[in-house]
Each structure stands twice: as structure tokens, then as C-alpha cells.
Design a protein that fits this description.
Order of helices and strands of chain B: HEEEHHEEEEEEE
Largest sheet of chain A: 7 strands, antiparallel
Structural class of chain B: alpha+beta
Largest sheet of chain B: 10 strands, antiparallel
Shape of chain A: globular
Distance between the termini of chain A: 41 Å
Oligomer: heterodimer
Low-confidence stretches of chain A: 1-28
Distance between the termini of chain B: 43 Å
Mean pLDDT of chain B: 92
Number of helices of chain A: 3
Radius of gyration of chain B: 20 Å
Structural class of chain A: mainly beta
Number of strands of chain A: 11
């Protein structure tokens, strides 16, 4: 059952670091490298394999109040980070993309290293789905790491966002995670079509009769802790 | 070139020698931001780096469990005393009511440059307000922080008020100082999906004072993070 769901979320390319863009004139040719550790702080919301983007200023994977890209929609509805990372690779401001290889279960952590060419501005973006939701996700949008010194660490606690691309019906047919086993990505956009803060899930336990979710799937912010250490 | 390098190394050594934080004189205020949830006696501990009262994603210690399920901070306080921490125990002199504040002064020994805080959220099964090893600012000034509600992961959140429920191993909420709880609930759940310390998902409650699934009231006992405000003044 679990394995089947994993397949549905789409297991990304196995930890392949893909460098995008070549060093431009004026770029410091040296590399920067970061270890990124994600801890799942929820009760029962597995996080899909996170997609990471290392970039300079001028790129962001989402913006509050704007409609989600197709890549973000696919990640937020189905847990597959690959389309979002493919979009990023076409952006010349992106230095590297990387996807984790497995979901991060509640109470567990996963670390991944991402490296790319140094630039006067360094930013990190990260996205991962709360899989027992319709289109809930969390992460970092264009978080500046420019001032993070070598061997220094910084920790962010991040809230849940709603991609705004799928109505939060919580029905068994539409929630892809292990609580329901329903459909992941669907190109129909039947919600407000803009990214915002997630309102939380209601659950059958709180009176939403046809919700596939129970009280354990409810959550409050923050939903994840992201610790970033500069290695290089 | 060589002398320059030597100068830089010497300067670095000086910086390192001066970096251990000296004793600090702090004024601290903690405010309960919830609507209808009390804080049991607070433990505030200033300690050196590498120590924790709790860590998200890690199983609770037995002393953390005793605090989160029954409000007993004695074990955690002893743990921190054993590592030469400076503790402030129970500054509010008992429960800290919703909307209430407690203020106190703390003088921290040299090297005790991290701050951790815990208190049980009552009425909950094993919910607590927490701060995990904040790096205390060193420049004089006033600093504002907000704290979140955690779940110790040691007890199922059945939301039933049970005499004796504060004892680790006895399922139930030990008391309801709010007076808004009910009786006769059937229990919200009998399982805990995440058995490590994590962000509390909140309570469910219901509107049936003599039945339903929960002994808590969904109209008053719910909260959203943050559940507390922390103000530190570095003198």
C-alpha cells in the first residue's frame, strides 16, 4: 500500500545533482555547498521528497497571492518534485537543483547536500508536499544565504502553504497520501488559483463527513524545521 | 605576506579568547497568549550549548514526559542543574492563566548562553509550550520572541479528563483549571502517530459537556501557534 503510494507521488531521480548555468564573467568561480536537513514536525503528515533549488536573486518557486506554476501544482497535489525542478533548470539564475529520494515521515529528518557556483547573492528554495492534504505544501521561497558564513548554520521553522490549485475537499478520491490513496496531480484548477497560507485540515473527526482524514492529520504551524549548514 | 598571515592568526586568537560569553543580567517576561489554556509551573534554564530540555524529532526523556503529562518540572530542573545551568523554576508561583504574564530577573553564569523553556499546556494530554536552546543575545537591548505548542509524543490525545492522568503511563488529562471542560467523552483517539516531540496539532474538543468524543470545549480550548510571547531584556 505504502509502496504503491510512493510510486504515485513519483520517486525522483536518485540524488543526481544537476548544475544549471555556466559561470559568467565576474562570478567567483569557487563553489558553495550546503547541507540541508528537514525535520517533519507534524503528527501524521508525511512530507514528499523535497525538491531543492540553489540560485541567485531573481528566482522564486512561488509567490503568495500569485498563481502556482505547473511544477508547483504537480508538487503540491501529487508530491513529485521533478517538474518544479525542471522549470527551475530553465532559469539562468538557478545554479543547481536536487531532489531527496524518499518521503520524510513525521518525527524523522533527512539531510541532503546541494552545491553550486558561488555568486554575490546566494539563495535557497525548497518545496515538499504534506501528502495527506489536497494541495498543501511547505518549504522556503528564495531564502537568502548570502550572509551565512562557512561552517555556520541557520534554522528556519516553516508554515504550511496552500497551492490554491485544488479545492480542499479532503475526499478519498483527491488526497494522494497514505490516509486516502487518491489521485495526485489533476490539471483542473478548482480553487482560488493563488498561493496562500494553508487554512489547515478539518477532518472527519471535526465534522467534515466525507473527509478521508482523521484528527491525527490535523496540524498547526510550523510543520517543518529546516536547518542549513554551509559546508563550502 | 608571512607577517600578514601571522597577524591575522594572532587577531583570530584574541577574538576567540574574548568570545566566551560573560555573565549576563537578564530581565525576562513570559506571556500566555492562549484563549483558555493554562501553563503549569514554568522552567526557564540558561545553559551552555549542546544541552536541551527537548528536541523536536527526538523521543521525550522521562523527565520531559513527567512535565508534559503532569506539569512536574523537578526532573528537568535537576537534569539542567547537573550540567551547571542557571534555572528559574515556577516564576509565576503556580499556574499562568490565559492572558497572564510573569516577569523575573535572571543572572546567568559565564558560558550559560542558551535559553530553554517548558511548561505543560493544561488541559491537554501531553502538550507543552517550549523553547529549545535559543542563543541568548549578547548586546544590551530588548528582544521579542514567540513560542509554539509542542506535543511530547508520549500519550494519545484522547482529551478525557481523568483523575490521576498526570502520572506518566495513566492516560488522561489530569485537571481542567479553566472550568469549561466536560465529562463523559468517549475519547478522541487511542493512538499517537508521532512518538517523538513535535508541533501539537491542537485539540479537537466538542460542544457536548456531558458526552461527545472529547471532554474539552472546541469553542474555548483550541489554540493556534504561537502560544506564548517571550521578552528578554539584556542589561
Amino acid at each position: 500500500m505504502k509502496r504503491k503510494n510512493l510510486m504515485r507521488w513519483g520517486v525522483p531521480l536518485l540524488g543526481v545533482t544537476m548544475l544549471a548555468g555556466c559561470p559568467q564573467n565576474g562570478d567567483n568561480p569557487a563553489m558553495v555547498s550546503y547541507e540541508v536537513t528537514v525535520t517533519n514536525l507534524t503528527e501524521a503528515q508525511p512530507l514528499s521528497p523535497p525538491g531543492l533549488v540553489l540560485h541567485r536573486d531573481g528566482y522564486t518557486p512561488w509567490q503568495i497571492g500569485s498563481s502556482a506554476s505547473d511544477g508547483l501544482e504537480k508538487l503540491a497535489e501529487g508530491g513529485d518534485p521533478t517538474p518544479l525542478l525542471t522549470e527551475a533548470k530553465f532559469n539562468p539564475r538557478v545554479r543547481a537543483t536536487r531532489a531527496d529520494t524518499a518521503p520524510i515521515l513525521p518525527g524523522t529528518s533527512s539531510s541532503i547536500i546541494i552545491e553550486g557556483n558561488r555568486h554575490p547573492t546566494v539563495e535557497l528554495s525548497l518545496a515538499t508536499m504534506l501528502v495527506n492534504t489536497n494541495d498543501g505544501f511547505t518549504g522556503l521561497a528564495a531564502q537568502s544565504l548570502t550572509n551565512l558564513g562557512l561552517h555556520e548554520s541557520v534554522t528556519y521553522e516553516v508554515p504550511a502553504y496552500d497551492a490554491g490549485t485544488e479545492a480542499n475537499s479532503e475526499s478519498a478520491a483527491t488526497v494522494p497520501g497514505p490516509a486516502a490513496g487518491g489521485e495526485g496531480f489533476n490539471s483542473v484548477r478548482d480553487d482560488r488559483n493563488s498561493v496562500g497560507g494553508h487554512p489547515g485540515v478539518v477532518s472527519a473527526g471535526d465534522g467534515l463527513g466525507d473527509s478521508a482524514l482523521d484528527v491525527s492529520h490535523r496540524f498547526d504551524n510550523p510543520v517543518a524545521r529546516i536547518r542549513i549548514t554551509r559546508l563550502e | 605576506m608571512q607577517p600578514l598571515i601571522r597577524t591575522l592568526i594572532a587577531a583570530g586568537t584574541l577574538t576567540l579568547a574574548a568570545s566566551p560569553v560573560m555573565a549576563q543580567d537578564l530581565d525576562i517576561t513570559i506571556t500566555n497568549l492562549t484563549h483558555d489554556t493554562y501553563f503549569t509551573p514554568l522552567l526557564i534554564s540558561a545553559h551552555s550549548g549542546g544541552h536541551h530540555l527537548f528536541q523536536p524529532g527526538t523521543a521525550a526523556s522521562s523527565h520531559l514526559q513527567a512535565m508534559a503529562e503532569g506539569g512536574d518540572i523537578s526532573g528537568l530542573a535537576a537534569d539542567m542543574t547537573a550540567v551547571s545551568a542557571d534555572n528559574q523554576e515556577n516564576p509565576a508561583g503556580g499556574l499562568l492563566a490565559p492572558g497572564g504574564s510573569t516577569s523575573f530577573a535572571m543572572v546567568t553564569a559565564s558560558g550559560n548562553d542558551h535559553l530553554s523553556i517548558t511548561a505543560m499546556l493544561l488541559p491537554t494530554n501531553d502538550g507543552f509550550v517550549g523553547l529549545d536552546a535559543l542563543s541568548i543575545p549578547t548586546s544590551a537591548g530588548t528582544y521579542h520572541y514567540t513560542l509554539n505548542g509542542y506535543d511530547a509524543g508520549t500519550e494519545a490525545n484522547n482529551e478525557l479528563i481523568v483523575s490521576g492522568g498526570g502520572t506518566p503511563g495513566i492516560l488522561g488529562i489530569p485537571a481542567d483549571p479553566t472550568g469549561h471542560g466536560g465529562t463523559g467523552g468517549t475519547g478522541v483517539t487511542s493512538t499517537e502517530a508521532n512518538t517523538t516531540v513535535h508541533i501539537h496539532r491542537g485539540v479537537l474538543g466538542d460542544t457536548n459537556a456531558s458526552g461527545g468524543v472529547s471532554d474539552l470545549d472546541s469553542r474555548t480550548h483550541r489554540w493556534l501557534n504561537p502560544v506564548a510571547e517571550l521578552v528578554i531584556t539584556v542589561n
